[in-house]
Design goal:
The protein is mainly beta. 8% of the residues lie in helices and 43% in strands. The strands form three sheets. Strands 1-6-5-4 form a four-stranded antiparallel sheet, with no helix packed on it. A four-stranded antiparallel sheet has the order 2-3-8-7, with no helix packed on it. Strand 4 and strand 5 form a beta hairpin. It starts with a strand and ends with a strand.
Length: 143
């Protein structure tokens, strides 16, 4: 249903840890899961600590793009950071969706740091029965 557009994601993740946060011109990758559930294709992105208004979802033709930005929390002037491992900056992921998905009816839900997109399978891609006329009778086969 989808094709990976970034075969070096793990290398990018390690590089991001060494090089620092992502920017809008060079965002970091975000982890995701993708699976089919009944008549829907589900894609879930991990975005802990990101507010819903900092997430941008675009679909152009069959290219789905998700961008998000995690900003540092406001701290008082007397706070001295001892350890900072939670990545900040811009995160992005692009995936190519198959033609069998209905990109006009994507539903997005964000809860507990997980953005879940539900993409319906297009009607033309669902299995259907076709009746065959033979002589004076009809016979059905599963397609």
């Amino acid at each position: 249903m989808l094709m990976r557009t970034d075969p070096f994601r793990e290398l990018d993740r390690l590089t991001q840890q060494l090089m620092g946060p992502g920017t809008w011109s060079k965002p970091s990758a975000m982890p995701m899961d993708a699976y089919r559930e009944g008549d829907e294709y589900v894609v879930a992105f991990d975005l802990p600590g990101v507010t819903a208004d900092a997430i941008d979802i675009d679909v152009e033709r069959n290219m789905l793009t998700v961008k998000a930005e995690r900003r540092p929390a406001a701290k008082a002037d007397d706070v001295q950071m001892e350890l900072s491992e939670r990545p900040l900056g811009v995160f992005s992921r692009q995936i190519v969706l198959a033609d069998t998905l209905d990109t006009e009816h994507i539903k997005a839900h964000y809860d507990a740091g997980v953005l879940t997109l539900r993409i319906p399978i297009a009607e033309r891609a669902k299995p259907r029965k076709i009746s065959i006329g033979v002589g004076s009778g009809h016979r059905e086969i599963s397609g």
